Amino acid sequence: MALTGLQIQKLLPKTNCKECGSTTCLAFAMKLAAKKAELSECPYASDEAKQVLGAASEPPVRTVAIGGAKVGGETVLYRHEKTFVNQPVLAVNLCDTDGGASAEVEKIKGYVLERVGEALTVGAIAVTQQEDNPAKFLALVKEIAAAGLPVIIRAKDEKAAGEAAALVKGAGGVLTGADAGNAEAYAKLAQENGLTLAVCGETADEICAATARIKEGGFNDLLIEPRAKTPAEAFQINSILRRGASNHKPAGYAFLRFIEDGDVYDVMGAATSEVCKYGGVIVFPKFDAAVISSVMALRQNIYTDPQKPIQMEPGVYRIGEPDENSYVFVTTNFSLTYFLVSGEIENTGLSGWLVLPECEGLSVLTAWAAGKFGGDKVAEFIKAQDIYQTQKNKTVIIPGYVAQISGEVQEGLPGWKVMVGSQEAGDFESYAKANGLV
Ligand code: SF4
Fold first, then answer.
1. Average pLDDT of the chain to the nearest whole number
2. If 303 and its partner were Cys, which of 70, 87, 225, 336 is the partner (CB 3.0–4.6 Å)?
3. 212 CB contacts (<8 Å, ≥6 apart)?
4. How many other C-beta atoms can be found within 10 angstroms of the C-beta atom of residue 227?
5. pLDDT for 98-128, tens place per residue?
6. Closest ligand 1 atom, residue 24 Cα
7. For residue 84, with 0-12 CB atoms within 10 Å meaning exposed, 13-18 middle and 19 or more buried, which class applies?
């Protein structure tokens, strides 16, 4: 639970020595409460202060690493309150009953979705044992571990789990299958092999009892795997556990969910629910690029800081191989707008200069309504760029949604021709043809 400034001040030396940069211990305590300072800035902090404030500053959901990614670490229930920080890892399940694992692994490993300047990839592969043939299961684990992605082990029993865990030792994977009956034994396996342990159960009470026992035993790199039978149950138990996490530590772990096979709507429904409601590691029943790419796009949107739109550096961007005879295009520096507009211009085969004035990452109409994309500002920005001096083709094309600023742009750029482009980026090709640009 968060401490107030006054509560924190009681734990400080109260000598007002100023070495932390604050004029008094109380001022420093206020900064700590607002998370604008670190306790380590006070060289005289007692061990008691470190212990109490360390525990108080821990996020309600523990952060664990899955390979190079982190999951958990969340501090709020709703993204509009602050932001969600660690996006869920998307994984794909392979079973020992499936044939052709190596071709699947290559597909999963090689899949990259480029979106808004980010490369989105699958973060792990799960291996599920279905047959009573440990040798076959272990061979599959070994093959997948060699591919370099973290492995999520789902074995039928403790013996197979232990042998599989040893094969992926230290590779940042996950061991599933811990429950109220085997909690200590599985925790030992996970700890010995440097793995995160997923604790399963059908109810929140059952799961929390097991996580509390494991933590008491000294191991705390945990995930929670609620066993829900329906999507409604999954939604409900995730919400109960996450709400409980802020004041009940045994619930304070990220979730792991295996989505069992179903039609595309079942899988999409379950995966989107997990992305929106607290999923930590989401395992798809098979690799389907259409499904996974949609979920990746949703994940990227949900895990963007709502107070900071994803934005490009203001400036001039090249499309193709532009020169002084190319057209000049203008839009805002909202990343999604930039990638859509530049992609559509590229699709026509045109080269050009795409100018992005500083609009704080807002979209065209929002930026215009907020007074950040007025005609005078656009003209001023273009004038400050090198292309203003070097262009022979003095034609600037502004977004169709802000046709009303064309007069002001024209006024600010004497000698230039101002064209009003299409409203939607997707209509640019037909606009370019209709206006003789291509
Ligand atoms: Fe107080 Fe520590 Fe800051 Fe000194 S350094 S003023 S003791 S908080």
1. 93
2. 87
3. 249, 250
4. 16
5. 877 889 999 999 999 988 778 999 999 999 9
6. 6
7. buried
pTM tops 0.85: no
Helix (H) / strand (E) element for 101: namely: helix 101-110
Distance from C-alpha of 414 to C-alpha of 133, rounded to nearest angstrom: 79
Tokens of 417: 């021709």
Question: What are the residues facing 57 on neighbouring strands?
Answer: none
Sequence-distant (6+) residues with CB within 8 A of 245 are: 60, 61, 251, 252, 253
3-state secondary structure 352-364: EEEEECCCCCCCH
Mean pLDDT of 134-144: 94
17 lines ligand 1 (CB under 6 A): yes
30 close to ligand 1 (CB < 6 Angstrom): no
Residue 74 has pLDDT above 70, yes or no: yes
What's the chain's length in residues? 438
Residue 388 CB less than 6 A away from ligand 1: no
Which ligand 1 atom sits nearest the alpha carbon of residue 29?
Answer: 8
- The 10 Å Cβ neighbour count of residue 198 is 28
Residue with tokens 């507009």: 341
Please indicate whether residue 31, judged by its CB atom, sits closer than 6 Å to ligand 1: no
Pick the residue whose CA is nearest to atom 3 on ligand 1: 20
261 and 80 in contact (C-beta within 8 Å)?
Answer: no
Query: For ligand 1, is residue 21 a contact (CB within 6 Å)?
Result: no
Phi, psi (degrees; rounded to nearest 5) at 12? -90, 165
Residue 247 has pLDDT above 80, yes or no: no
Is there an atom of ligand 1 within 6 Å of 15 CB? yes
Six token digits for residue 396: 């600037």
pLDDT in tens, 14-34: 999 999 999 999 999 988 887
Cα(19) to centroid(ligand 1), Å: 6
Pocket test for ligand 1, best of 40, 42, 50 (most atoms within 8 A of CB): 42
Give the separation between CA 215 and CA 222, rounded to whole angstroms. Answer: 9
Burial of 410 (0-12, 13-18, 19+ CB in 10 A): middle
131 lines ligand 1 (CB under 6 A): no
Spacing, Cα 21 to ligand 1 middle (Å): 8
Amino acid identity at 381: F
For residue 83, which phi and psi values (nearest 5 degrees)?
-165, 155
